[in-house]
Structures are given as C-alpha cells and as structure tokens.
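Posting this for the archive.
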Amino acid sequence: MPRCTPLPLLPALLALSLPAGATDGGQLAPIVVTATRTAKTLDDTPIRTELVSRDEINRTHARNLKEALQNIPGLQLREIHGKSGYEVSLQGLTSDQVLVLIDGLPISASTSSTVDLSQYSLADVEHIEVIKGAASAQYGSSAMGGVINVITRRPAEGFGGRVTLDAGSYGRQNLSGDTLDIGSKHGQLNLHGGQGDWRYRLGADRQDSDGFTTDPATWSQQGDAVLRDQFNGYLAWQPQAGKRVWFDGSRYREEAEQRYTVTAPPNLVPQRKTEIIDRDRLTAGADWHHANGLGWQVKALNEQYDSHSTSRSNSVLTTDRTAELETQHLSAQLDLPMWRNQLWQIGADLHKETLEQYSNGVSELGRPDVQRDSQELFLQNDILFSNALELVLGVRYQDDSDFGGYTAPKAALRLDYLDGTDWRGTLRASVGQGYRVPNLKERFFRFDHSALGYMVLGNADLKPESSTSWQLGTVLQWRDRITFDINGFYNRVKDLIQIDEENGTSVGGIMVYSYKNIARAETRGIESSVRLHMTRRLSTQLAYTWTDTEDLDTGATLTRRPEHIAVLSLDLTLPSETTSVSLRGRYQSRELISTDRNAWSPEWTTVDLTINQDVTPSLRVFAGVNNLFDTQRDFSDADDFGPLAGRFGYLGVRYQWGVR
C-alpha cells in the first residue's frame, strides 16, 4: 500500500489553523470545573486546562469521544491492541495513566485495561476538559498522566431537540469494492427541557460501520465492522438556583467483527473474532450551594461492563471468552465559605472494582474473580492573595486494599503579570505527585493468543507506579486577537509499568509477554501554540508539542512515544454567514516500536475538511472528508502504526428545534 504524506502542504496549512474549542474574539471565557472541582472561568483556573467546546464538536462532526479529542495539541490516540477502539496518551504517559471521567465520575476500562474512547457518543455532551500532568490532590489512581472530564449538558426550561443523520463511504476500500456504496451510517437524537423544578434529557445514538478492506476480493478486513448503540436518560429536581438532585442512566451495546488470516503453509486460514459488549451505567447525586459560599455535593456510580467474544478458525470455534467488570464509586465534597481570602475544600472517594473472566469455561484470572477497593481523602486550600495572584495547595491520601496507603501533595500557582487594555499575561506553575496501583488486567489477566503465536500474562508481583509532575507555562494575549501559549512539562516516574517486545520470551515456539516495572523513567517536553483571530469570520492556530522520553536505567527511549506532534486548523465563515469551512490537520513524527530491533513506525500527516451550510436557523446540511490526502499505513509492515483508515467522505443533515 503506497503512503501519501503531503508534507509540502504542511507549512501552508500551519499558517491557517485554529485550536480545538477556540471561541470567537470577544466571547466570555467558558466555565470549567475539573482543575479544582470548583467552577472557574477558563482564564482564571490556576491549572492549565484545554477545552473541546460544543461548537468544535458541531463544526468537525465528531461522533464519539475519540473523534472529539483528536485535535487536542500533544494528545496521542492509538488503537487498543486486539480491539476495535482507541486509547489516549498524554505527555508521554500511557492510557492506563490517564483518568477519563464523565461529570467527575470514572469510566470503566474495557476488561479492566484501558478506556476505549470510541465507545462514548456525544449526544449529551456540552464540552470536554483536558488537564495534563498529575492532578493527584483532586484525583487519585490513574491520574498520573492527566485527566479528561466529559461535561454533559444541563437542560434549560422549555422543550427542545435535535436530530442528526449522516452516512459516508470508504471509496474503493468499501467491502463491496463499489466506490459509491455506503460504508458507514450514523444517527443521533436528543430531547431535552423542563418545567418548574424539573429538568430532563433523553438521548440516542447509533454508529454502524461495515469496516473497510484494502482488497475486497480477499477475506481479510483491515477495518473492523462495528455497530454501536447508546441510550441516555437524565432527570433532575432543581427547587432553587444552585440546588439539584439528579439521576443519569445509560445503556451501551457494541457488536464488532474482526476478519483476518493466519498462515498454515501453504494456505491462508480464515479467522473471525466477534465481540458483544454491554455497558449499563447508573449515576445519581445531589449538589447544594448556599449564598454564603457553603456548598456540598455527593454522587455515586454503579457501572456493569460485560464482554462476550468468540474466535473461529475456518468456522471452527477456538475460543469463547466472557468478562464481567463491575465498578462502584462514591464521591463526596464539601466547599467551605470564603475565610480570609481562602477557599477550603474537603472530599472523599470510595472505589471498588470486581472482575471475572473466563475462556472456554476456565477462569483466566487463576480464581473465580479478582477485586480491589480504595478509600481516598483529599484536602485543598485555594488562597486568593489578590485578583492577580492565586495559590492552590492540596494533599490526597489513598488507601488501597492490596497496596496500603500513599500520600500525594500538589501545589499550583496562577499569576496575572499583565492585565491592561491591550495585553493580558498569565503565568501558571504546578508540581504534583501521581500514584497508580496496577489494574486488575496487569496483575491477573491471561490473554492467550497461542494460535497467533503470542500470549500476554499478568504479573501479580507488580508494584504501584509513582511520579512527580512539573508544569510551567504562560499565556500571552493581545486584544482577543492573538494568543501565545507555551508550557514546559517534566514527569519523573518510578516503577513505570511497561510491556513491549523486549519483555517477551519464547516458550514452545510461543512468544510470552508480561508486564514489568521499569525502575525509573522520564518524560519531558514543550507544548506551544499561536492562535490568531484575524477577523470575525476567520480564525487560525498552530500547535506544536515536543516530547522526549527515557528509561533512566538503560538510557533507551520509551516505545510508542512520538517526539513531534503538530495540530493545525482553520475556521472560515463565508460572507453569507450561513456557510462555514473548516480544516483540521495532524502531524506525528516517527515513533519507536522496538528497542531491541530498533524498529520505528513512520511519520504521517492527515488533513480533514468539513463544510456546514445553514439552510435555516434550525436546519443544517453538512459534508466532510476525513483523511483528505488518503494517508494510510502499510499493512504488510507490522511496525507501521500510521493511520488505520484511508479517505472517508460523508454527507449529513441536522435539524434542531425549541430551546438549545
């Protein structure tokens, strides 16, 4: 498969770019809550927070959480090994070290491994907040690399709704081989509103992809066929402003099929893997805020994640695997009134996970089930020396059922060093300790793919990871027209958990891999961006991230961490005010795949084009082309981890009515 990487176009596109979630000049800064668990404007939060707004989601036609996050500067997305989904990496730290939340409550990882971002639709999402680095005083295990918090919409009084339908084609890579056939379909419905003290929201989303293949005449299918359905319901009682009791439930179902071949000389033997995933998520809570500044909130989660997968060779059943993961979480927080320019916050989190996993009727965990639970306490003091100077001090204590106690402190500083008519400058600095206990998969899971020549075993002797994260950056803004943002980061990790080719040993011709603790590792780098609001109709930005990683025991670079990532965008509204055109481009340098073989995955560049046409204030017609220049990995090269899907074009329509 030839590669198409339009690098000569990159400099021109870099000059015409916009950040994900940027707002037009003159708009008020949005409210964010993740950094301190207290509502603050984006400009005033003491910890650097990046935002994907609802406007950005609508402009780019993102259908799930993976697509919404792909334009965040420095964020790396990659396929989950053996699954039809994507995971996230931040500042050189892996997906297991990034905590993903919905309204502050954790998302269950697939089979207790990593969160699959493709499994979460955006029907009810207001915006997404991203914090990079350890925010450990607010969030415990799994937050070493950062936090991604999905904020859902709060319905307004009245009634409104929205319907979105779109369909697209993979062109010559459609399974039928017919370029004009529909290869993927998507539909979304959202109803919301309220009357008096009550608010409600209902949502439904379906993504149905046939997948794609580089050769329709063969059995193998490089892009999996996946059907994803999600249904959401929300009900809240709001007797007064700042007082709410709410319930939120969702049901998710996924049906995925992988088709590939294995070599049994002289034949290629067809293989088929199917997986059905069901996830039932129920959350409830109450938040109460008083006029004197006193506030409290309690929220709880129960999530059941079930997976049933089967593998067949030449239609003969070889593996029948089931997994059940139950997650329970309770969070409580008390915000005290302002006292001598200080805002004190006290909170607690209780967390429990239970995993069962069977293959052909035999437990893969060495016992009927495994579980872990933790109790965590945190204390934070937000000291407001003045409107221009703020210091946040925090500490978190975590007691894990298997690993005992650990204390993690944090400090963050915000200084507005310029606050004039034309110029505004803000300095942000933070240092925090991160801590992560090994998840249940890393410790107990047995992933037997002997038919494909490999096996992955859990390691019950793993130790928890710990880290120290330093962040220092500044934002300099001129008249809402030009914004410069630069941030340096340094993460020093102890007992980093890593698995790659160097860990493997051959047993009877089968490569056996296991997780292990790397004694010491570092990730460091610089994140930078330049944003231009050239006119009311044209906004541009360039964002660039440099990342350097090192195993401090061997001096080797850590695998799967690209050194350079660039994100570029352009948003243009035509004079008619009803038509907008957007470009989103991404560049990723080569990444090390194997230290032992010195194997690297090549660099790549992709560009997406979207067009939105507002026919009426309620009706929008849209179109887009993802991966415009058809950059795609070489599937014959096992070390090539470039873009999976080639060019994908689509058309759609959105109709909305009532309150928004």
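Residues 7-658 form a domain with the Maltoporin; Chain A fold (CATH 2.40.170.20). The chain has a mean pLDDT of 91.
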